[in-house]
TrEMBL record:
Annotated catalysed reactions: Cleavage of hydrophobic, N-terminal signal or leader sequences from secreted and periplasmic proteins
Similarity comment: Belongs to the peptidase S26B family.
Pfam family, one: Peptidase_S24
Top EC class for this record: hydrolase
Protein name: Signal peptidase complex catalytic subunit SEC11
Keyword entries, A-Z: Hydrolase, Membrane, Protease, Signal-anchor, Transmembrane, Transmembrane helix
Principal location listed in the UniProt entry: endoplasmic reticulum
Species per Swiss-Prot/TrEMBL record: Nyssa sinensis
GO cellular component labels: signal peptidase complex
Annotated GO biological process: signal peptide processing
Length: 181
C-alpha cells in the first residue's frame, strides 16, 4: 500500500511538472511573437507594419489576400506611391495609390489625394470621411515596401468565418496540451 501511494505521488508530481513546462513553453512562444512584432514596429516606423489587402480595389497590382509590408519615414510622399491610411469613422486601413500631393508653402503640411488602381473615381468621393477632400500625413500609416501574394487569405478566412478561427485555436491548444517532451 505504501508503494502505491509513493507511485501516485510521483505520477501527480510528473503531471504537474509536465503541465507547468507546457504552460511555460506556450508563454515563451507568445512572448517571442509579441517581441518580434514590437521590434518590427520599431524598425519599420509604422504602428502596423503588416496589413492584408481585403478588397480588389488595387488590382491588378495587389489582389485580395496579399500581405503588404509597410515602412514609415519622414521623406516626402510622392504621387504614384502606394500608401496605407486610416480615415475617421473607419476601423479598417485602406491601401491605395497617391495620385496628387499638394505641399503648403512655408510649412511641412501636405494634402494627399488617393485612388484605388481598380476604382473609377478618387477616394474623396466615398472613402474619406464626410466633407474630407484630402488626407494629411497624420492619416498615413505607412508606405508599401514589399508583399507576399495570397498569404493573407488565412486572415481573411478566419475573419469572415470565425468558427474556423476557434477550431484552429482549439486544435493548437489541444496539440500543446497533449504533446510530450
Amino acid at each position: 500500500m505504501e508503494n502505491f501511494e509513493i507511485t501516485m505521488k510521483s505520477i501527480r508530481s510528473d503531471s504537474v511538472r509536465r503541465i507547468t513546462a507546457q504552460a511555460i513553453s506556450m508563454g515563451m512562444i507568445i512572448a517571442s511573437a509579441l517581441m518580434m512584432w514590437k521590434l518590427w514596429m520599431c524598425l519599420s516606423g509604422s504602428d502596423s507594419p503588416v496589413v492584408v489587402v481585403l478588397t480588389g480595389s488595387m488590382e491588378p497590382g495587389f489582389k485580395r489576400g496579399d500581405i503588404l509590408f509597410l515602412q514609415m519615414n519622414d521623406s516626402p510622399i510622392h504621387s504614384g506611391e502606394i500608401v496605407v491610411f486610416r480615415v475617421e469613422g473607419k476601423e479598417i486601413p485602406i491601401v491605395h495609390r497617391v495620385t496628387t500631393v499638394h505641399e503648403r508653402r512655408n510649412t511641412d503640411e501636405i494634402n494627399i489625394l488617393t485612388k484605388g488602381d481598380n476604382n473609377l473615381i478618387d477616394d474623396s468621393h466615398g472613402i474619406y470621411a464626410d466633407g474630407q477632400l484630402w488626407l494629411e500625413r497624420s492619416h498615413i500609416m505607412g508606405r508599401v515596401i514589399g508583399y507576399f501574394p495570397y498569404v493573407g487569405w488565412a486572415t481573411i478566412i478566419m475573419t469572415e468565418k470565425p468558427v474556423i478561427k476557434y477550431l484552429l485555436i482549439g486544435a493548437l491548444s489541444l496539440l500543446v496540451i497533449t504533446s510530450k517532451e
